[in-house]
Every structure is written in C-alpha cells, then in structure tokens.
Design brief:
Layout: E1 4-5, H1 8-28, E2 34-40, H2 44-59, E3 63-69, H3 75-86, E4 93-96, H4 106-112, H5 124-132, H6 140-150, E5 160-164, H7 171-180, E6 184-188, H8 195-199, E7 204-207, E8 225-228, E9 232-233, E10 239-240, H9 245-248, E11 254-255, H10 262-280
Parallel strand pairs: 1-11, 2-3, 2-4, 5-6, 5-7, 7-8, 8-11
Antiparallel strand pairs: 9-10
Helix pairs in contact: 1-10, 2-10, 6-7, 6-10
The structure holds NADP nicotinamide-adenine-dinucleotide phosphate.
Length: about 280
C-alpha cells in the first residue's frame, strides 16, 4: 500500500486557526502580536518570501511591519533599526530575511536581535537553549518537521531517526529536536561514506540536503516516515524535494510531498513563535 501523504497545507491551516485564536485573546487584552520583517536588497526569491510572511501575519490577525532597504544600507544602519525594533512594544518578533548583501555580517545582525524577539531561533543563545533543553524559540523549518511527524501519531521514543544534512538552520536543530523527543539520532552529511547503510535502518528519515533523488526507495526501511525538506527543480523546472517521491511512497508509511509538505509549515511555525513571544512578554 502506498505511503500516506502528510499534508502540510492542511496541518498549517489547522495550526494557523489555533494561532489566530491565541492572537485574538491577546488583541482583546491590548497586546496584538506584532512581527517586523526586514529585507535588504532586491533578491527576487527573498521578495516573495517576505511578502508571504507579511500576508500570513494579516491572515492570523497579527500586526506586521515590512521594512525594505536598498542593497547599500550600511551594517550600522541595520543594527540601529534592530535596536529600535528591540525596544518597540508593538513588535514581538523580528525577522531579518537572509541572505544579506555581502558587506553586512549576518552573524552580527542575528545576534543584535533581542533573544525575546528571535522568532527565527537562529541566534547563538536560542541554539544554546535548544541544545540544553531550555525553553526558547526553535528554528521554524525543523520545528515544522516535528509537527508533521507528530501528526502521524508516532511516538518517537526508542525510534531511530536519520537526518541527512547538518546546516545550522535545518539539519542540526532537527537532530536536536528528534533527540529531545527521545529518538536515537544519526546525522549524515556530505562526508558520510555510505548513506544508504544508515537510512535503511531508520524509522524516520529527514532529508535536508538540496539535491534531487538523495533518498531513493532502495534506501528506505519499509514503514518508515520520510520528511522531505529539500527544495530543488527537476528537469522541467518543476519544484521537487530531495526524495524520489514516487519510488519512496511505495515503501514508506508516511511521506511529505514537495510542494505542500514542509514548505507551508515553515511560515506557520514563525507565526507560532511570534504568538508565543507576545504571550511570554
Ligand atoms: P545547506 O546549508 O546547503 O546544507 C545542506 C546539507 O546537506 C549540508 O550539511 C551538506 O553536508 C549535506 N549534503 C550535501 N550533499 C550531501 C550528500 N550527497 N549526502 C549527504 N549529505 C549531503 O542547506 P539547508 O539550508 O540545510 O537546506 C537544505 C535544503 O532544504 C535546501 O534544498 C533548501 O532549499 C531546503 N529548505 C527548505 C525549507 C522549507 O521551508 N521547505 C527551509 C529551509 C531549507 P556538509 O555539511 O558536509 O556540506
């Protein structure tokens, strides 16, 4: 029997309904959740991403501010804007869209965001909170992957999870979240000699590589849950993930499609972190 497709659009709608309800409680108390999105430069993909984030804020009843700057904005000017937003009581979350122009140090910018407003969860302190199991903001994409796995009703305790990819924004936090849920976790990367040897024993595989067909049916244990974070283009220019969806769905028990799996969850978890930031304040 083919795997059940995990519908990230449907789950997002459900979670966004819950977020909107939480936002309206806060708004009634005079504390409408607010997100500031900063874009520097003209990167076309980034323009789409920030537009989608601001629209999503409106849909759940958040206040949002989109600040767009020319590519020649100085680092000092950007840091001064972040300082002002850190002090702005109407703003509970600050997101600086990456990538930034080369003359701006992204680490300096991320670290300038107050931890209480770091809804992307990218700062060193937020990463440390995740590592040590303290409450804090979890990076949105892996956080969304956890919700997708949760939606299958699977208890991760004692399961073997394999994460392919070790980036600071996806692979590493993903592995830590799985570990926190009591899975036994293996992290694979470009220097892993025999990827299939690891994935074949996994109850859960999360692919976050950025390369088509990284995970094929022969690499998957029957009944495994497969989460596909990758965003690539196939030969016809169509969006596809890292997983050979048609092959793997014949082996796995659950699988996320691309598009319509992890993608919609990333913005949803940004909204979740922002409403939580407003509630915590
Ligand atoms: P990244 O920073 O480029 O990291 C890719 C990781 O894959 C690296 O750790 C790399 O290993 C590993 N890798 C490369 N080739 C490999 C191979 N042949 N076998 C095993 N591992 C290999 O990318 P990222 O930011 O984590 O993103 C990964 C993918 O997810 C991209 O397609 C990105 O577009 C997508 N993404 C989607 C969303 C979403 O919302 N849907 C959000 C974020 C990212 P090394 O560390 O050894 O180089």
């Amino acid at each position: 029997m083919p795997a059940q497709s995990i519908d990230g659009i449907l789950l997002s709608q459900k979670l966004r309904g819950e977020i909107a309800a939480r936002a309206s409680v806060l708004t009634a108390k005079g504390k409408q959740p607010g997100l500031a999105v900063i874009l520097v430069g003209e990167d076309p993909a980034s323009q789409v991403y920030v537009r989608n984030k601001v629209k999503a804020c409106g849909d759940v009843g958040f206040h949002s501010v989109l600040e767009k700057y020319e590519a020649d904005l100085t680092e000092a000017a950007l840091l001064a804007r972040i300082d002002a937003l850190n002090a702005d009581p109407a703003i509970h979350g600050i997101l600086v869209q990456m990538p930034l122009p080369k003359h701006i140090n992204p680490h300096k910018v991320i670290e300038a965001i107050s931890t209480a407003k770091d809804v992307d969860g990218y700062s060193v302190l937020s990463a440390g909170e995740l590592l040590t199991g303290l409450p804090g903001f979890r990076p949105c994409t892996p956080y969304g992957c956890m919700k997708l796995i949760e939606s299958t009703g699977t208890d991760l305790r004692g399961k073997h999870a394999v994460v392919i990819g070790r980036s600071n924004t996806v692979g590493k936090p993903m592995a830590l979240l799985l570990l926190q849920a009591n899975a036994t976790v293996t992290i694979c990367h470009s220097a892993t000699p025999d990827l299939a040897q690891h994935t074949r024993g996994a109850d859960v595989v999360v692919a976050a590589v950025g390369r088509r067909n990284t995970l094929t049916a022969d690499m998957v244990k029957p009944g495994a849950i497969v989460i596909d974070v990758g965003m690539n283009r196939d030969d016809n220019g169509k969006l596809c993930g890292d997983v050979d969806f048609n092959g793997v769905r014949e082996v796995a028990s659950h699988i996320t499609p691309v598009p319509g799996g992890v993608g919609p969850m990333t913005i949803t978890m940004l909204l979740m972190n922002t409403v939580e930031a407003a509630e915590r304040e």
